[in-house]
Write a structure and sequence with these properties.
The chain is an alpha+beta fold. It is built from 12 helices and 17 strands.
Length: 396
Protein backbone atom coordinates (compact mmCIF):
# COMPACT_ATOMS: atom_id res chain seq x y z
CA UNK A 1 0.00 0.00 0.00
CA UNK A 2 2.85 2.37 0.87
CA UNK A 3 4.48 1.62 -2.46
CA UNK A 4 1.26 2.50 -4.24
CA UNK A 5 0.91 5.78 -2.35
CA UNK A 6 4.50 6.71 -3.15
CA UNK A 7 3.83 6.09 -6.84
CA UNK A 8 0.74 8.32 -6.98
CA UNK A 9 2.72 11.56 -7.68
CA UNK A 10 4.52 9.84 -10.55
CA UNK A 11 1.22 8.58 -12.00
CA UNK A 12 -0.24 12.09 -11.70
CA UNK A 13 2.74 13.61 -13.54
CA UNK A 14 2.45 11.04 -16.34
CA UNK A 15 -1.26 11.77 -16.78
CA UNK A 16 -0.57 15.50 -16.80
CA UNK A 17 2.06 15.06 -19.50
CA UNK A 18 -0.30 12.93 -21.55
CA UNK A 19 -3.08 15.50 -21.70
CA UNK A 20 -1.31 18.83 -21.22
CA UNK A 21 1.98 18.51 -23.14
CA UNK A 22 0.39 18.03 -26.62
CA UNK A 23 -1.69 21.15 -26.04
CA UNK A 24 1.40 23.19 -25.14
CA UNK A 25 3.27 21.91 -28.19
CA UNK A 26 0.37 22.73 -30.49
CA UNK A 27 0.45 26.34 -29.28
CA UNK A 28 4.14 26.75 -29.89
CA UNK A 29 4.53 29.93 -31.98
CA UNK A 30 7.13 28.09 -34.06
CA UNK A 31 4.43 25.82 -35.50
CA UNK A 32 3.91 26.25 -39.24
CA UNK A 33 0.87 24.54 -40.69
CA UNK A 34 1.05 23.67 -44.38
CA UNK A 35 -2.05 23.67 -46.61
CA UNK A 36 -1.98 19.87 -46.71
CA UNK A 37 -2.09 19.61 -42.93
CA UNK A 38 -4.79 22.27 -42.68
CA UNK A 39 -6.83 20.46 -45.32
CA UNK A 40 -6.56 17.17 -43.46
CA UNK A 41 -7.80 18.88 -40.29
CA UNK A 42 -10.80 20.35 -42.09
CA UNK A 43 -11.66 17.11 -43.85
CA UNK A 44 -11.75 15.29 -40.51
CA UNK A 45 -14.55 17.53 -39.24
CA UNK A 46 -18.14 17.46 -40.36
CA UNK A 47 -21.61 18.58 -39.44
CA UNK A 48 -24.76 16.51 -39.45
CA UNK A 49 -26.02 17.91 -42.75
CA UNK A 50 -28.22 16.14 -45.26
CA UNK A 51 -26.94 15.53 -48.77
CA UNK A 52 -28.60 13.85 -51.69
CA UNK A 53 -27.59 12.64 -55.13
CA UNK A 54 -30.85 13.93 -56.60
CA UNK A 55 -30.99 16.93 -58.92
CA UNK A 56 -30.18 20.00 -56.77
CA UNK A 57 -33.23 21.87 -55.59
CA UNK A 58 -33.62 25.39 -56.95
CA UNK A 59 -34.80 27.91 -54.39
CA UNK A 60 -36.95 30.89 -55.42
CA UNK A 61 -34.70 33.87 -55.97
CA UNK A 62 -35.15 36.72 -53.48
CA UNK A 63 -33.33 39.62 -51.91
CA UNK A 64 -30.20 41.08 -53.48
CA UNK A 65 -29.63 37.90 -55.47
CA UNK A 66 -32.43 38.96 -57.79
CA UNK A 67 -30.16 41.72 -59.16
CA UNK A 68 -27.72 39.26 -60.74
CA UNK A 69 -28.33 39.43 -64.50
CA UNK A 70 -29.97 42.86 -64.26
CA UNK A 71 -28.68 46.22 -65.42
CA UNK A 72 -26.66 48.11 -62.84
CA UNK A 73 -29.10 51.01 -63.19
CA UNK A 74 -31.75 48.96 -61.40
CA UNK A 75 -29.43 48.59 -58.42
CA UNK A 76 -28.25 52.20 -58.24
CA UNK A 77 -31.83 53.41 -58.52
CA UNK A 78 -32.51 51.84 -55.14
CA UNK A 79 -29.11 51.97 -53.42
CA UNK A 80 -27.56 55.08 -54.93
CA UNK A 81 -24.10 55.55 -56.40
CA UNK A 82 -21.15 53.38 -55.34
CA UNK A 83 -18.47 54.56 -52.93
CA UNK A 84 -15.97 53.88 -55.73
CA UNK A 85 -15.38 51.71 -58.81
CA UNK A 86 -12.31 49.47 -58.78
CA UNK A 87 -10.59 47.98 -61.85
CA UNK A 88 -10.23 44.22 -62.35
CA UNK A 89 -8.04 42.05 -64.55
CA UNK A 90 -11.05 41.24 -66.71
CA UNK A 91 -13.09 43.51 -68.99
CA UNK A 92 -15.35 44.47 -66.11
CA UNK A 93 -15.54 46.69 -63.04
CA UNK A 94 -15.95 46.10 -59.32
CA UNK A 95 -18.45 48.51 -57.79
CA UNK A 96 -18.04 49.06 -54.03
CA UNK A 97 -21.12 49.99 -51.96
CA UNK A 98 -21.29 50.77 -48.25
CA UNK A 99 -18.48 51.28 -45.80
CA UNK A 100 -19.20 49.43 -42.57
CA UNK A 101 -20.40 46.20 -41.01
CA UNK A 102 -24.05 46.87 -41.85
CA UNK A 103 -24.02 47.82 -45.54
CA UNK A 104 -20.84 46.69 -47.34
CA UNK A 105 -21.24 44.99 -50.74
CA UNK A 106 -19.29 44.50 -53.98
CA UNK A 107 -20.77 44.11 -57.46
CA UNK A 108 -19.03 42.88 -60.59
CA UNK A 109 -20.43 44.78 -63.57
CA UNK A 110 -19.74 43.76 -67.17
CA UNK A 111 -21.19 45.78 -70.05
CA UNK A 112 -23.63 47.33 -67.60
CA UNK A 113 -24.90 43.96 -66.29
CA UNK A 114 -24.40 42.62 -62.76
CA UNK A 115 -22.77 39.18 -62.93
CA UNK A 116 -21.49 38.75 -59.38
CA UNK A 117 -22.68 40.22 -56.07
CA UNK A 118 -20.76 39.85 -52.81
CA UNK A 119 -22.75 40.76 -49.68
CA UNK A 120 -20.97 41.33 -46.37
CA UNK A 121 -23.23 43.91 -44.67
CA UNK A 122 -25.32 42.40 -41.85
CA UNK A 123 -28.39 44.53 -42.60
CA UNK A 124 -28.56 43.75 -46.33
CA UNK A 125 -31.26 41.43 -47.67
CA UNK A 126 -29.91 37.96 -48.53
CA UNK A 127 -33.27 36.17 -48.23
CA UNK A 128 -34.09 33.41 -47.56
CA UNK A 129 -30.87 33.50 -45.54
CA UNK A 130 -29.45 36.15 -43.25
CA UNK A 131 -25.99 37.30 -42.29
CA UNK A 132 -25.35 35.77 -38.89
CA UNK A 133 -27.68 32.80 -39.51
CA UNK A 134 -26.40 29.56 -37.99
CA UNK A 135 -25.67 26.49 -40.07
CA UNK A 136 -28.46 24.69 -38.22
CA UNK A 137 -30.96 27.30 -39.41
CA UNK A 138 -29.59 27.01 -42.96
CA UNK A 139 -30.25 23.25 -42.89
CA UNK A 140 -33.92 23.98 -42.20
CA UNK A 141 -34.17 26.08 -45.38
CA UNK A 142 -32.06 24.18 -47.89
CA UNK A 143 -30.54 20.80 -48.64
CA UNK A 144 -26.88 20.56 -49.57
CA UNK A 145 -25.82 18.74 -52.72
CA UNK A 146 -22.35 17.32 -53.42
CA UNK A 147 -22.53 17.86 -57.20
CA UNK A 148 -23.94 20.54 -59.49
CA UNK A 149 -24.20 20.58 -63.27
CA UNK A 150 -23.53 24.10 -64.52
CA UNK A 151 -23.77 25.32 -68.09
CA UNK A 152 -20.84 27.37 -69.30
CA UNK A 153 -20.60 28.56 -72.91
CA UNK A 154 -22.79 25.73 -74.15
CA UNK A 155 -20.88 23.10 -72.18
CA UNK A 156 -22.12 21.25 -69.08
CA UNK A 157 -19.57 21.39 -66.28
CA UNK A 158 -19.93 19.22 -63.18
CA UNK A 159 -18.85 20.84 -59.93
CA UNK A 160 -18.04 18.56 -57.02
CA UNK A 161 -18.11 19.85 -53.45
CA UNK A 162 -15.77 18.40 -50.84
CA UNK A 163 -16.78 17.80 -47.26
CA UNK A 164 -15.02 21.03 -46.36
CA UNK A 165 -17.03 22.88 -49.02
CA UNK A 166 -20.29 21.49 -47.66
CA UNK A 167 -19.30 22.52 -44.15
CA UNK A 168 -18.01 26.01 -44.80
CA UNK A 169 -18.76 27.03 -48.42
CA UNK A 170 -22.06 25.34 -49.37
CA UNK A 171 -23.49 26.14 -52.80
CA UNK A 172 -27.15 27.02 -53.34
CA UNK A 173 -28.96 27.05 -56.72
CA UNK A 174 -31.81 29.46 -57.54
CA UNK A 175 -34.65 29.27 -60.04
CA UNK A 176 -33.21 32.08 -62.19
CA UNK A 177 -30.14 29.96 -63.04
CA UNK A 178 -27.93 31.81 -60.57
CA UNK A 179 -26.11 30.53 -57.50
CA UNK A 180 -25.09 31.62 -54.03
CA UNK A 181 -22.08 30.60 -51.97
CA UNK A 182 -22.68 30.83 -48.24
CA UNK A 183 -19.42 31.81 -46.54
CA UNK A 184 -19.38 30.30 -43.04
CA UNK A 185 -17.30 31.30 -40.03
CA UNK A 186 -15.45 28.24 -38.75
CA UNK A 187 -15.58 29.45 -35.15
CA UNK A 188 -19.23 30.49 -34.87
CA UNK A 189 -20.73 28.28 -37.63
CA UNK A 190 -22.64 31.32 -38.85
CA UNK A 191 -22.94 32.99 -42.27
CA UNK A 192 -20.53 35.90 -42.53
CA UNK A 193 -21.12 36.69 -46.23
CA UNK A 194 -23.13 35.57 -49.25
CA UNK A 195 -21.74 35.52 -52.80
CA UNK A 196 -24.29 35.53 -55.65
CA UNK A 197 -23.02 34.57 -59.12
CA UNK A 198 -24.18 33.70 -62.59
CA UNK A 199 -22.94 30.39 -63.99
CA UNK A 200 -19.99 31.89 -65.87
CA UNK A 201 -18.77 33.76 -62.79
CA UNK A 202 -19.13 30.63 -60.65
CA UNK A 203 -16.99 28.57 -63.03
CA UNK A 204 -14.38 31.30 -63.32
CA UNK A 205 -14.14 31.69 -59.54
CA UNK A 206 -12.70 28.20 -59.61
CA UNK A 207 -13.24 27.26 -55.97
CA UNK A 208 -15.06 23.97 -56.57
CA UNK A 209 -13.54 20.95 -58.27
CA UNK A 210 -14.61 20.60 -61.91
CA UNK A 211 -11.90 18.09 -62.81
CA UNK A 212 -9.86 20.67 -64.72
CA UNK A 213 -8.73 24.26 -64.45
CA UNK A 214 -9.23 24.85 -68.15
CA UNK A 215 -12.60 26.52 -67.51
CA UNK A 216 -11.33 29.29 -65.31
CA UNK A 217 -7.70 29.97 -66.17
CA UNK A 218 -7.86 33.63 -67.20
CA UNK A 219 -6.59 34.74 -70.58
CA UNK A 220 -5.83 38.44 -70.46
CA UNK A 221 -3.13 41.05 -70.76
CA UNK A 222 -2.73 43.76 -68.15
CA UNK A 223 -0.15 46.50 -68.46
CA UNK A 224 2.02 47.42 -65.50
CA UNK A 225 0.16 50.64 -64.74
CA UNK A 226 -3.21 48.89 -64.57
CA UNK A 227 -1.76 46.01 -62.54
CA UNK A 228 -0.41 48.46 -59.98
CA UNK A 229 -3.86 50.06 -59.76
CA UNK A 230 -5.46 46.63 -59.31
CA UNK A 231 -2.98 45.71 -56.58
CA UNK A 232 -3.70 48.99 -54.80
CA UNK A 233 -7.46 48.44 -54.85
CA UNK A 234 -7.05 44.79 -53.83
CA UNK A 235 -5.03 45.96 -50.86
CA UNK A 236 -7.79 48.40 -49.93
CA UNK A 237 -10.43 45.66 -50.21
CA UNK A 238 -8.47 43.34 -47.91
CA UNK A 239 -8.26 46.08 -45.29
CA UNK A 240 -11.98 46.86 -45.63
CA UNK A 241 -13.21 43.28 -45.40
CA UNK A 242 -10.95 42.28 -42.50
CA UNK A 243 -11.79 45.40 -40.50
CA UNK A 244 -15.52 44.97 -41.11
CA UNK A 245 -15.32 41.42 -39.77
CA UNK A 246 -13.23 42.58 -36.80
CA UNK A 247 -15.87 45.25 -36.18
CA UNK A 248 -18.54 42.54 -36.25
CA UNK A 249 -16.71 40.68 -33.50
CA UNK A 250 -16.09 43.87 -31.52
CA UNK A 251 -12.35 44.02 -32.13
CA UNK A 252 -10.40 47.18 -32.89
CA UNK A 253 -9.66 47.97 -36.52
CA UNK A 254 -6.26 47.21 -38.04
CA UNK A 255 -4.41 50.36 -39.09
CA UNK A 256 -2.74 50.16 -42.54
CA UNK A 257 1.02 50.47 -42.09
CA UNK A 258 3.32 51.60 -44.89
CA UNK A 259 6.24 50.28 -42.84
CA UNK A 260 4.79 46.75 -42.75
CA UNK A 261 3.98 46.93 -46.46
CA UNK A 262 7.58 47.93 -47.16
CA UNK A 263 8.79 44.95 -45.11
CA UNK A 264 6.56 42.61 -47.13
CA UNK A 265 7.92 44.07 -50.39
CA UNK A 266 11.47 43.70 -49.11
CA UNK A 267 10.86 40.01 -48.37
CA UNK A 268 9.98 39.45 -52.03
CA UNK A 269 13.01 41.46 -53.22
CA UNK A 270 15.42 39.67 -50.89
CA UNK A 271 14.21 36.27 -52.07
CA UNK A 272 14.74 37.18 -55.73
CA UNK A 273 18.20 38.60 -55.02
CA UNK A 274 19.17 35.51 -53.05
CA UNK A 275 18.01 33.21 -55.85
CA UNK A 276 20.08 35.17 -58.38
CA UNK A 277 23.13 35.05 -56.09
CA UNK A 278 22.73 31.32 -55.53
CA UNK A 279 22.48 30.62 -59.24
CA UNK A 280 25.55 32.71 -59.94
CA UNK A 281 27.49 30.87 -57.26
CA UNK A 282 26.44 27.56 -58.76
CA UNK A 283 27.65 28.67 -62.19
CA UNK A 284 31.01 29.83 -60.90
CA UNK A 285 31.63 26.58 -59.05
CA UNK A 286 30.38 24.59 -62.06
CA UNK A 287 28.53 22.46 -59.58
CA UNK A 288 24.78 22.06 -59.86
CA UNK A 289 22.65 20.52 -57.18
CA UNK A 290 18.94 20.38 -56.51
CA UNK A 291 17.69 23.55 -54.91
CA UNK A 292 16.15 21.72 -52.00
CA UNK A 293 16.19 24.85 -49.87
CA UNK A 294 13.77 26.50 -52.32
CA UNK A 295 11.41 23.56 -51.89
CA UNK A 296 11.52 23.56 -48.11
CA UNK A 297 8.11 24.06 -46.61
CA UNK A 298 9.15 25.35 -43.24
CA UNK A 299 11.93 26.14 -40.83
CA UNK A 300 11.35 24.06 -37.71
CA UNK A 301 13.25 26.57 -35.56
CA UNK A 302 11.20 29.55 -36.71
CA UNK A 303 10.30 31.94 -33.90
CA UNK A 304 7.44 33.67 -35.74
CA UNK A 305 3.91 32.68 -36.61
CA UNK A 306 4.04 32.19 -40.37
CA UNK A 307 1.22 30.60 -42.31
CA UNK A 308 1.96 29.56 -45.90
CA UNK A 309 -1.37 29.19 -47.63
CA UNK A 310 -0.08 27.67 -50.84
CA UNK A 311 3.23 25.89 -51.21
CA UNK A 312 2.40 23.61 -54.13
CA UNK A 313 2.98 25.84 -57.12
CA UNK A 314 4.98 28.79 -58.30
CA UNK A 315 3.54 32.23 -58.96
CA UNK A 316 3.49 33.42 -62.56
CA UNK A 317 3.60 37.03 -63.71
CA UNK A 318 1.04 37.14 -66.54
CA UNK A 319 2.74 40.14 -68.17
CA UNK A 320 6.31 38.78 -68.36
CA UNK A 321 5.50 35.06 -68.05
CA UNK A 322 8.12 35.05 -65.31
CA UNK A 323 7.86 32.29 -62.73
CA UNK A 324 8.52 33.15 -59.09
CA UNK A 325 9.51 30.52 -56.56
CA UNK A 326 7.30 30.27 -53.52
CA UNK A 327 8.55 31.80 -50.30
CA UNK A 328 9.56 29.69 -47.33
CA UNK A 329 9.11 30.62 -43.69
CA UNK A 330 12.91 30.76 -43.35
CA UNK A 331 13.18 33.36 -46.13
CA UNK A 332 10.42 35.42 -44.52
CA UNK A 333 12.02 35.31 -41.09
CA UNK A 334 15.50 36.22 -42.36
CA UNK A 335 14.16 39.55 -43.61
CA UNK A 336 12.07 40.16 -40.50
CA UNK A 337 15.15 39.68 -38.33
CA UNK A 338 16.74 42.63 -40.10
CA UNK A 339 13.90 44.92 -39.00
CA UNK A 340 13.08 46.44 -35.63
CA UNK A 341 9.98 44.26 -35.31
CA UNK A 342 9.71 41.90 -32.34
CA UNK A 343 9.18 38.51 -33.98
CA UNK A 344 6.80 37.28 -31.30
CA UNK A 345 4.55 40.26 -32.08
CA UNK A 346 4.24 39.52 -35.81
CA UNK A 347 1.86 37.29 -37.76
CA UNK A 348 2.41 36.45 -41.44
CA UNK A 349 -0.01 35.06 -44.03
CA UNK A 350 1.46 34.13 -47.40
CA UNK A 351 -0.75 33.05 -50.29
CA UNK A 352 -0.67 32.46 -54.01
CA UNK A 353 -3.91 34.20 -54.89
CA UNK A 354 -5.92 32.26 -57.47
CA UNK A 355 -9.24 33.92 -56.63
CA UNK A 356 -10.34 37.48 -55.93
CA UNK A 357 -9.94 39.31 -52.64
CA UNK A 358 -13.58 38.98 -51.54
CA UNK A 359 -13.34 35.20 -51.70
CA UNK A 360 -9.85 34.99 -50.23
CA UNK A 361 -10.53 37.20 -47.21
CA UNK A 362 -13.83 35.58 -46.23
CA UNK A 363 -12.54 32.07 -46.89
CA UNK A 364 -9.78 32.69 -44.34
CA UNK A 365 -12.54 32.58 -41.72
CA UNK A 366 -13.31 28.97 -42.61
CA UNK A 367 -9.72 28.01 -41.74
CA UNK A 368 -8.67 27.81 -38.10
CA UNK A 369 -5.11 29.13 -38.22
CA UNK A 370 -5.86 32.09 -40.48
CA UNK A 371 -8.94 33.07 -38.51
CA UNK A 372 -7.01 33.05 -35.25
CA UNK A 373 -4.31 35.24 -36.79
CA UNK A 374 -6.77 37.75 -38.21
CA UNK A 375 -8.95 37.90 -35.08
CA UNK A 376 -6.00 38.31 -32.72
CA UNK A 377 -7.03 41.18 -30.46
CA UNK A 378 -3.38 42.04 -29.87
CA UNK A 379 -2.79 42.93 -33.53
CA UNK A 380 -3.19 46.62 -34.36
CA UNK A 381 -1.42 47.14 -37.72
CA UNK A 382 -1.55 45.52 -41.14
CA UNK A 383 0.66 45.62 -44.22
CA UNK A 384 0.25 43.89 -47.57
CA UNK A 385 2.37 43.44 -50.68
CA UNK A 386 1.82 41.75 -54.06
CA UNK A 387 4.16 40.09 -56.53
CA UNK A 388 2.34 38.63 -59.54
CA UNK A 389 -0.13 36.23 -57.82
CA UNK A 390 1.82 36.18 -54.56
CA UNK A 391 0.25 37.99 -51.63
CA UNK A 392 2.10 38.56 -48.37
CA UNK A 393 0.16 39.95 -45.41
CA UNK A 394 1.84 41.02 -42.17
CA UNK A 395 0.06 41.80 -38.90
CA UNK A 396 1.72 43.53 -35.95
Amino acid sequence: MKTFLRSLPLIFIMLLATYWLPEVISRNPADIITPKEESETIQSESFDYQTTDLEPEQLPIAGLGSYVGQNIAAFTEKFGDPMRIDPTVYAEERWIFGKDETDYAQLIVKNGIITDLFVLGSELDVAPFKIGMSITEVFQLASFYPTYSVENQGEQVTLELTESDLNYRPLIAFDNQTFAVLMMDRSTNQIIAVRYLDSTSLIRLGVYDDGSKKHFIPSFEVDEIKQDAINETNQKQVYEILNILRQRYELSALTPSDALTNVAETIFINQEEQIIADRQANKESSFSEAESSDKAIMNQNSSIDTFILDDKSNSIDEQTNQTYQTLTSEQIELTLQETELELNEVRVLYSIQETDVAWLATNWFSLEIERNFLMDAGMTEIGLAYRANDMLLILH
